[in-house]
Design a protein that fits this description.
Elements lengths: L6 E4 L3 H12 L4 E4 L3 H11 L5 E3 L3 H6 L6 E4 L5 H10 L8 E4 L5 H12 L4 E8 L1 H7 L2 E4 L3 H14 L2 E2 L2 E2 L9 H29 L5 H11 L7 H11 L9 H4 L9 H12 L4 H14 L1 H10 L15 H31 L5 H7 L11 H10 L10 H23 L5 H14 L5 H12 L3 E2 L6 E4 L8 E3 L1
Parallel strand pairs: 1-2, 1-4, 2-3, 4-5, 5-6
Antiparallel strand pairs: 6-7, 8-9, 10-11, 11-12
Helix pairs in contact: 1-6, 8-12, 8-13, 8-15, 9-10, 12-13, 13-19, 15-18, 15-19, 16-17
This protein binds 6-phosphogluconic acid.
The site of 6-phosphogluconic acid has 13 residues, from helix 8 and helix 12.
């Protein structure tokens, strides 16, 4: 009987190629397919020594080389290309076979695809894969959704290639249909927020502290040894240490200051708005990227000479570097608390039954937001799976309350010296909103009732009410 592959990968650009190599390195026979067969041949020529590959020139050959239930990993650019590959392969598959979309698909597309393929007796697994090209090869964090029964046949293979922490794979069945891609999307949203907060910390240390990029690299390197230890902090030190070979200037100074985005952070905010979850940290990070790319507005502002204070003044009340570390950690906690709240809200909305502690657990390695403090998030949800906000967990409450004086000093300094810190300041506003005994939303309810008769509730008795604002004496009536 000709040799069969346990898993197949179609789409052999770098991510797909590295996933295929990772499966082969773990002893699995891997079927290969790519639109251009040349790339398939190149992979085998260059990496054939790493394991057993079954290169296929056609989709038919590819499918025939797979053992049952067939497991086909799709690694193409999310969008219409994914549908095209599904349309090509689905007719060749049989009952119980599975298609695994490892791209950054939108979870709503995954839910649609999963339902359509289920009707044909096929499994469709939307799997978030985080860690970039290096992660795909050496161990990503994997967030598979789809039917639980397909995870029984697929999970062991994914867990083999996933990153490990204390021998535990950073891969778990997230939940049905689009749950995996939803969690990956929120991972990316948190990634955006984390990157924005790090950028604000750098900006303050540069503009207020007067530190050079190389000095700030050293500060980040020292922070990476402590509670902020994470992949993003680690690579920030590397980026800030980099000197541009062509000019001898700090690399960060020769890069155009316009941040781009492929869209997953934006999706996160759109989904949060629909769920009614205030992911202000993620939203501010998406807006900050948009502002940075807003050339017409920025040019107009410069030409108009928008006035404001100059930076470089004194940071009053504390050591700037120590205060920025505190502000960064507190704001990061807020951003993660919001992201996990969004996952819990979606899990409830879609009936996914996602375990937030398990998500923190599989994010401890392999993914872009991997960080030491995810252990504490896991512990918080293991203690109380229905925790309404991470900020109410003892560890995080202590961390944020201990940081808040420094955090407030940093937000004051940024405002007084005209340095934009939307991440730090919105996180502080979120924190103060959560802990406020009374919010000015009462006035907003009054305004809404005045102009739109939208009614309001009273603090002293149940029910809804409306005031007849135009009537004599403005009497209140039951709504
Ligand atoms: C990951 C990354 C990756 C993502 C880019 C997004 O988890 O490996 O999040 O999936 O595609 O990092 O980059 P943008 O900043 O362009 O959205």
């Amino acid at each position: 009987m000709s040799q069969k592959a346990q898993i197949g990968v179609t789409g052999l650009a770098v991510m797909g190629r590295n996933l295929a190599r990772n499966f082969a390195r773990h002893g699995h026979t891997v079927a290969l397919h790519n639109r251009s067969y040349g790339r398939t041949k190149e992979l085998v020529e260059e990496f054939g020594h790493e394991g057993t590959f079954l290169p296929a020139e056609t989709a038919q050959q590819f499918v025939e080389s797979l053992e049952r239930p067939r497991r086909v990993v799709i690694m193409v650019k999310a969008g219409p290309a994914t549908d095209a590959v599904i349309d090509e392969f689905a007719p060749l598959l049989e009952e119980g076979d599975m298609l695994i979309d490892a791209g950054n698909a939108h979870y709503a597309d995954t839910r649609r695809r999963e339902a359509a393929l289920k009707a044909k007796g096929l499994h469709f697994v939307g799997a978030g894969v985080s860690g970039g090209e290096e992660g795909a090869l050496h161990g990503p964090s994997i967030m598979p959704g789809g039917p639980k029964e397909s995870y029984d046949a697929l999970g062991p293979l994914l867990e083999d290639i996933a990153a490990k922490v204390d021998g535990e794979p950073c891969c778990v069945h997230v939940g049905p249909d689009g749950a995996g891609h939803f969690v990956k999307m929120v991972h990316n949203g948190i990634e955006y927020a984390d990157m924005q907060l790090i950028a604000e910390a750098y900006d303050l240390l540069r503009q207020v502290g007067g530190h050079s990029p190389a000095e700030i690299a050293d500060i980040f390197r020292s922070w990476n040894e402590g509670r902020l230890g994470s992949y993003l902090i680690e690579i920030t030190a590397e980026v800030l240490k980099q000197v541009d070979a062509a000019t001898g200037k700090p690399f960060v100074d020769i890069v155009v200051d316009r941040a781009e985005q492929k869209g997953t952070g934006r999706w996160t905010v759109q989904a949060a708005l629909d769920l009614g979850v205030p992911v202000s940290g993620i939203a501010e990070s998406v807006f900050a990227r948009a502002i940075s790319g807003g050339v017409p507005e920025r040019t107009a502002a410069t030409e108009a000479g928008l006035p404001g204070p100059s930076a470089g003044g004194e940071h009053v009340g504390g050591d700037l570097t120590a205060d920025v570390e505190q502000a960064l950690f507190a704001s990061k906690i807020v951003a993660y608390a919001q992201g996990f709240q969004q996952i819990q809200a979606a899990s409830k909305e879609y009936g996914w039954d996602i375990d937030p502690g398990a998500m923190a657990k599989i994010w401890r390695a392999g993914c872009i937001i991997r960080a030491k403090f995810l252990d504490f998030i896991k512990q918080a949800y293991d203690k109380k799976p229905d925790l309404a906000t991470l900020l109410a967990d003892e560890y995080f409450l202590d961390a944020v309350s201990g940081a808040q004086d420094a955090w407030r000093r940093v937000v004051v300094t940024a405002a007084q010296q005209g340095i934009p810190a939307p991440g730090f300041s919105s996180a502080l506003a979120y924190y103060d909103s959560l802990r406020a005994s009374r919010l000015p939303a009462a006035l907003i309810q009054g305004q809404r009732d005045f102009f739109g008769a939208h009614t309001y509730q009273r603090v002293d008795k149940p029910g809804s009410f409306h005031t007849l604002w135009a009537a004599e004496g403005r009497p209140e009536v039951d709504a």
